[in-house]
Amino acid sequence: MRRQTFIHGLIAGAATLSLSGLIQAQTPLEVPFYYPVAVGGPITKVIDGYAAEFNKVHPQYKLTPVYAGTYQETIVKALTAHKAGKAPATSVLLSTDMFTLMDEDAIAPIDDFVKTDADKAWLKGFYPAFMANSQAGGKTWGIPFQRSTVVMYYNKQAFKEAGLDPNKAPQNWKELKEAAHKLTKKDASGKVVQYGIQIPSTGFAYWMLQTLTTPNDALLANEAGTKVTLNHPKVIEALDFWVSLVKEGVHPAGVVEWGTTPKDFMEKKAAIIVTTTGNLTNIKANAKFDFGVGQIAGNIRKGSPTGGGNFYIFKKAAKEQQQAAFEFAKWITQPEHAAQWSMDSGYVAVSPAAYETPVLKKYGQEFPQALVARDQLPVSVAEYSTHENQRVTKVLNDAIQAALNGSKTPAQAMEEAQKESDRILRRYK
Predict the structure, then answer these.
(1) What distance in Å separates the CA atoms of residue 296 and residue 305, rounded to the nearest whole number?
(2) For the chain, what is the largest distance between any 2 Cα atoms, rounded to a whole number of angstroms?
(3) Is the same domain home to 265 and 373?
(4) What is the mean pLDDT of residues 239-244?
(5) 402 and 278 in one domain?
(6) I need a labelling partner for 277 at 20 to 30 A (CA). Which of 3, 11, 19, 253 fits?
(7) CA dihedral defined by 396, 397, 400, 402, rounded to 10 degrees?
(8) Where are the alpha helices (DSSP H) in 2-70?
(9) Are residues 107 and 41 in the same domain?
(10) Are residues 297 and 315 in the same domain?
């Protein structure tokens, strides 16, 4: 009897062990994913949808988006978690955060996860312009995801009323300034009710300056992120052009908010705005008038900086989480997903293969405005990025704002920004 009880006990114990093993095998691995969005809304629903779809195809993982605020707030949260030993598996952060993340030893090179020929082909499939802000020191640190170029949005109705061709955006600075004058409207009391052009100067002032320095054939920093050239005559000339739009009354005075610029366009307070292609889906859904999208106006040349966010894999995350993050980044950047994301968001699909998918081909034919940012890529340059990126960028942003609000001349502002940036970057030379 005792022997029988013992055998029953063994069988029951074995059953419990195999059941707990089964439960363990079926419990998916938690994979935290920080995503930069400040408020809920359509984009969070889209990202939630992608996460759910990925988890369905990969039941061994439970990838969970954590909405962490603005890009700036997200990098602070990600680095705080990294320092506390609780790093997310992955985060979408600005491509320009690459040097900062490397300096903090927070991210793992993507090359460490690229094992198969298919992986290698995938990594080679991105647009070279986007890889300029994703690679350094012979390694790949970021995977392009929500990437962009800067474009001009213009109100075709306002163009018609001003006697301008509604099917052609201004091609150069001369045309841009002339159009801005024609498009500026005042009421009976002389108050401007519609500015000809609006370029935002909060948040990403440095990026907007690049939309003027790039066509003026000037680069703001070297590839290694160790040296800036803010006091170059061509940079000063570009900022001077921006300031002249304000002085001539065709652009709002003072500091212009990044977040409200698309709204000002949709409310007809500005006839032309310069901002990211990432605003395209929003403007398409909400503008109550016919609008055009144009490449950035040229001067010496054409061109725009690239922009937007990359996936980064965090070094202190568990190996299995890192692998899951790599699988997710690879999955979401496959041509069919990249195509869908481009249509959902307005960002540029990150590979030529995405534009060959039937769905994006059809979308491009029906809505050619969606192809402008992509067509600008061959003449695009890397977004301004250096070591100590947050500090160096703040110096430049402050200098631009000082020139726009008239407290410093463009030459003065850039000279001081150069000296301060040199001081910050001294140890990286």
Answers:
(1) 10
(2) 106
(3) no
(4) 98
(5) yes
(6) 253
(7) -110
(8) 2-26, 42-57
(9) yes
(10) no
Task: Give dist(CA 73, CA 402) in Å, integer.
Answer: 24
Shared domain for 343 and 369, answered yes or no, is yes
Domain assignment of residue 3, yes or no: no
pLDDT given at position 42: 82
Helix (H) or strand (E) holding 156: helix 156-161
Residue 307 contacts residue 20 (beta carbons within 8 Å): no
> Using alpha carbons only, what angle is made at residue 414 by residues 129 and 394, rounded to the nearest 5 degrees?
65
- The arithmetic mean of pLDDT across residues 348-353, rounded, is 97
Beta bridge partners of 396: none
In a domain, 20, yes or no: yes
Q: What is the CATH number of the domain that holds 332?
A: 3.40.190.10
Residue 89 lies inside a defined structural domain of this protein: yes
Residue identified by tokens 């894999």 is 313
Instruction: Say if CB 237 and CB 216 are below 8 A apart.
Output: yes
pLDDT in tens, 44-92: 999 999 999 999 999 999 999 999 998 989 999 999 999 999 999 999 9
Mark whether 334 and 344 lie in a shared domain: yes
Give how many domains the chain has, as a whole number.
2
Q: How far apart are CA 66 and CA 45, in angstroms?
A: 12
Q: Classify residue 62 as exposed, middle or buried by CB count within 10 Å of its CB (0-12, 13-18, 19+).
A: middle
364 and 389 belong to one structural domain = no
Whole-angstrom Cα distance, residue 88 to residue 368? 38
pLDDT (tens digit per residue) in 137-155: 999 999 999 999 999 999 9
Residue owning tokens 């921006």 = 242
Q: What are phi and psi of 153, to 5 degrees?
A: -105, 135
Taking the whole predicted model, whether its pTM rises above 0.85 is answered as: yes
Q: Which residue has the tokens 């000809």?
A: 196
Percent of the chain with pLDDT over 70: 93
Question: 253 is in which domain, residue-wise?
Answer: 152-306+383-428
Q: Are residues 104 and 160 in the same domain?
A: no
Contacts of 422 (CB under 8 A, 6+ apart): 228
State the CB neighbour count (10 A cutoff) for residue 49.
Answer: 12
Q: Is residue 326 domain-resident?
A: yes
